[in-house]
Fold each of these.
Amino acid sequence: MNGFRFRNRADAGHRLAILLGAHARRRGTLVLALPRGGVPVANEVATQLSLPLDVFVVRKLGLPKHHELAMGAIAADGRVILDESLIAAAHISQPQIAAVIARETLEVQRRIRLYRDGRAERSLKGQVVILVDDGLATGSTMSVAIHAVRAHEPSSVIVAVPVGSREACDDVESLADILVCLLQPEPFEAVGAYYQDFSQTTDDEVRGFLAEAAMTEPAGRLAV
């Protein structure tokens, strides 16, 4: 698949769903998307497999002057993973790190309120959780998500992504029970390089996917 690019996130999700077909309609299985870009991918996975869809809010911690470069990530429960080697190389001070964490904590809280829209948080205890994002660059965001999900005592954690760097996939695979990754190109470019359409997913689109999923979910599937 050298030079291959997904048409868009929905196409990537459709292709992932094929590899995850053994989980179709399986009770006790939940698809959790990392917003925002992971939501269209996860929505397609959940739709194709007839599984419940929800979000798990995690935020990248970008370097102060290079926001796209992740020095770590933070989850809704306050768990933080930091890339100490990158922080040292970039000469980032502890007050700078604290400021980024404070800002992203507020954004995590805002997104939870906005996306959940009054719906109760699901219980993950005993569930098979399929964590989905649109790609893995450094893997830090997915890594903190896995740690945070594990605290809720799921039966297993499956990570499913369309594309990832070899290093990030190795790191994530060591934390998850199963990793499903369609592409691991070398050398690895930015995640968006492997999509024809990588336009930004909006908050309204995320809310729309979640509202539709809640309306179409079969009675009795909710675990709250």
Note: Residues 94-116 form the longest helix (23 residues).
Amino acid sequence: MKTIKRFFDAQRPRFSSGGKLEKWYPFYEAMETVFYASDEVTRGKGPHIRDSLDLKRYLATVLLILMPLFFFGIYNTGYQARLAAGMSLDFWSVAWSGTRFVLPIVLVCYGVGFAWEILFAVIRRHPISEGLFLTAMLFPLTLPPTTPLWQVALGISFGIVIGKEIFGGTGRNFLNPALTGRAFLYFAYPAQMSGDTVWLALSGLKETAVDAITAATPLVVAAATETAGAVEETLAGAGYTVSTLFFGLYPDSIGASSTLLCLIGAILLMMMGIASYRIIIGDILGLILTGFLLNLLATETSSPYMTLNPFYHLLMGGTAFGFAFMTTDPVSAPDLHAARWIYGFAIGALTVLIRVFNPAFPEGIMLAILFMNVLAALLDHIVIRFRLKKRVPNV
């Protein structure tokens, strides 16, 4: 580490005021603080962390907790591809096949993301936004593993520029940048992002003559069920048992399929005080109670989807991933405790309602979070106004 420190100290004069590379100081500062905490205090507007963690270490902790999902996504991608091709499923072959799909997507996200961040940092003359480190990992984990790389670049560009930078950067955006980019791709290129053809698992595997495998996702299977009370049986018949959905070893987005790993991540985030337990518990309560309410309202003529056990909604479609890592974004979520309960409950409820009554958008969770992102500031405002009315008037 001393060698690295000497290297950065030797380069500092070139990037400091008056140096030949002065305008690229934001890039130098970002690279240095990957290894060493900054000794500068926050002077401008933006998110503040009121404890021993600075913002970079805060985000680095979340990034570290995401790593099991990233590595599981690599394994699951390779496993599904080789399983469909009838190839060997030994660990290293599976891991290598998955790496060939997933790693280019992640590298494109970081490469294109950093290019935009450096550009805006140089133009505005401020440090590179540390939020990019997390956004560039969250975004690829929400994508199908066969998303074309040019679409990946377009999606991360839209998320960073339109979802964050035009509002001033990290701390000033009201939409989650990763989900903003994902929503853009979802509506711009639905054939690759939704429906029953999101898994073209064998693309690029030269060892097999089969070009592509398509499979209906659990959400599509549930929505297409025509017999009331038989949704769970239909899912099981398609291979989506409770255990399969819980552990996540089935074709889905790269890092959003394993409810188990998302649950562990959520518990760690809550224990460390990084994620709000009010939002996560509110998410779960809203989803479960709304699902049970639809069960009670279901009749013989209503959609069979209304009869689905509510706990299945928690296991399918990246719901757990969204609850753990997206709804708890400290920038786009409310700040007040009461508002967080309402925010979380509404996201859970909307997720179920969108899935059941508008199957054209089978995921539900993405639209629910973005919709409540828009209302987050309003919820804080309403809670503050309510508190002010309860104050005893000054005499």
Note: The chain has two domains: 55-193, 218-390.
Amino acid sequence: MKNIKLIEVPSEIGAGTRGASMGVDAIKIAALDFMSNFFIHFPSEKIPTENKLLYEPIESPYAKRIKGMVTVYDRVSKAVCDAMKNNFFPILLSGDHSTAGATIAGIKMAKPKSKLGVIWIDAHADLHTPYTTPSGNLHGMPLAISINKDNQECAVHEVDETTVKHWDSLKNIGKIAPKVLPEDIVFISLRDYEKEEKHLIEKYDMKVISTKEVRNKGAENIVRAVLRYLSDCTDIYISFDVDSLDASISKGTGTPVSNGLKEREAEDLISKFMQNRKVCCFEITEVNPTLDKENLMAEIAFNIMQRSVNVLMMS
């Protein structure tokens, strides 16, 4: 039985739409609505944010609020690292997806010798850099940070020195870079990405599993194939962005995209992955209740989390 620790990261300085910082509380509200005492069962830690920066002028247009992000990365990576060193299985509830790079850093800091595999369940590739970003939002960059790539060959921006300095410190947090090799990342339900990201996916032959493939082959077969593909890895981190779900259900998130997973498909995939002993950390992100009428997104996120934890408790 695994000891679980919840790490709450209500940071949203990496997102373009406001409100993701409230996602963590929305998931807790969903738990209460379901009469669940889930959140009193486990120790939890809340990471202080730099969300005050949302009220200040943007200094780095191609990596918005990156200075604050360096601070948040420091806090999140330490929390994840400490939890793992104390034999906890960290479950992260984060506002926007940008801090996933800090989660990955924390895993590597706790287990520097590990070969880490990443299962990225997301409509987006999150492989942009300050040189290629169309928006400047850092939640489009955590995987580029983790694989330590600038993707200069696709550069469309001249990036100022201060931004470069902060970007380099994000990539080198924990003094390990890269944290993950591109070939050890598996994208599931990826369907909305730019040519600059496509360049990296093709260059490093990164594995992409479409929604259609999940539907045709079934969760069981997909999970088996992914774990076989990552069989060299000693540890696996699963990151679940709720926008991997179809836009018809993922209204409560900043960047909904059609042709996504059904709630049941996501739940089946994640709970089957969780049965594998190599999985060492799970993150759920991008719930934005301000875009949602009935708190549906948070309820779905809570259901997925609860089922995953039940699997962990039994394994």
Note: The chain has a mean pLDDT of 97.
